[in-house]
């Protein structure tokens, strides 16, 4: 009588690395992230990061400031690269501005409340 359950079988032995060669699984480098941060009281800050290198951040910041009537700045982050910060909740406005100017909606992620 042979019992299958008593054999020593490791189901993960032949698999090796579960991610395989795809080292960029879950990477956020191909998305443009629009986030909101709470400052103090009712004041908020909107950040835009992950913009492709083909777009000039300074020109985009100038266009955002003129279009949305808010102040903004360009911050260099060692992990995220250049981050555009705007005063107030500008998430929807930034998203529509970017989609109207040729960036696909599927590459834009809007985070927040």
Structure in words:
- There is one protein chain.
- With 113 residues, the protein is of the alpha+beta class.
- The chain has a single domain, classed as Translation Initiation Factor Eif1 (2-Layer Sandwich).
- It contains two helices and five strands.
- The protein has a five-stranded mixed beta sheet with strand order 3-4-2-1-5, covered by helices on one side.
- A hairpin with a 3-residue loop joins β3 (72-77) and β4 (81-87).
- The protein starts with 31 loop residues before the first strand and ends with a strand.
- The model has no long low-confidence stretch (mean pLDDT 84).
Entry keywords:
Translation initiation factor SUI1; 26% strand; SUI1; Translation Initiation Factor Eif1; translation initiation factor activity; single chain; 113 residues; 2 helices; alpha+beta
